[in-house]
Hints:
Blueprint: H1 3-15, H2 23-45, H3 50-70, H4 76-90, H5 96-112, H6 115-132, H7 138-154, H8 157-175, H9 180-196, H10 199-216, H11 222-237, H12 241-259, H13 264-280, H14 283-301, H15 306-321, H16 325-342, H17 348-364, H18 370-377, H19 382-388
Amino acid sequence: xxxxxxxxxxxxxxxxxxxxxxxxxxxxxxxxxxxxxxxxxxxxxxxxxxxxxxxxxxxxxxxxxxxxxxxxxxxxxxxxxxxxxxxxxxxxxxxxxxxxxxxxxxxxxxxxxxxxxxxxxxxxxxxxxxxxxxxxxxxxxxxxxxxxxxxxxxxxxxxxxxxxxxxxxxxxxxxxxxxxxxxxxxxxxxxxxxxxxxxxxxxxxxxxxxxxxxxxxxxxxxxxxxxxxxxxxxxxxxxxxxxxxxxxxxxxxxxxxxxxxxxxxxxxxxxxxxxxxxxxxxxxxxxxxxxxxxxxxxxxxxxxxxxxxxxxxxxxxxxxxxxxxxxxxxxxxxxxxxxxxxxxxxxxxxxxxxxxxxxxxxxxxxxxxxxxxxxxxxxxxxxxxxxxxxxxxxxx
Length: 396
């Protein structure tokens, strides 16, 4: 192999961010992502050494992870599958690294809504990790957690809680009850009970998570903000709007202080506060915040991202709920188009916006069948639809 290729590969491996959580890291990765794939592929095709094959596999996996973190889902699987091919061949089917990659593939399918595949891949990961690392290992616990998440998305909350409990027992044994990893488990169980509609139990677990995080990381840490956000969501479901806004604003303020105004987490929290206000009937304030959230998200995430779709969906919902059905339509169509670029048709977000579109179609009394009408609407370009989404005046 050329020394220049080896140097290029080494430098690239060092340059790629460890994670794509900060906006600067996202930008840095996206700028070199196509080059990174080319180098990994060329490196893979031009080596005959087992060690370098394994290094190429690790790079493919890292590229896939970063595409996943950045929301560029269409580019995730090809890199994961290439890495898996290498790991199975050179490390073996029943190797911990193979198991952890299967776990990542399962998590990808959970995010994109193909829950049958998610459960299959997460179960495969668990089988490998239990056999190679044992049932009381931290990596096995992560696989239990991710299978629990797949069952949450599927709506099988009791089974999800069972897998979350398995993960939690391991973390409690390894780290203790007052550890940040255990707090993350309590947070996840709280979220599962939230989805189940058991808000009392949800608050119990989320409060346990909050206390641990505040004691260890402090009240102004982004990790603590996650649980503040989830507490806000649960209080929202209980119609305790003051508490809901209080906790969601705490989360928002942490993200602004940590990441700045132009960050996807900041945009997300503006949208969450707007949703609470809309449910409270304060539609004007809600709409202003939804548009503010959308502008931030477009600046940092680009045009095709789940959070962009969610913003359009939320704006459309306010229009719909205030009787402006015609204004809601381009919002819902945009959300649907974006979601279908990213997710499986069975994904919960696709299903939600489809239901809204059917209701809007019914209320507008269109002559065309829903399927025909939707097909025609989807031929409109993103630009045409975006130009139809206008911020309402301050007296809507």
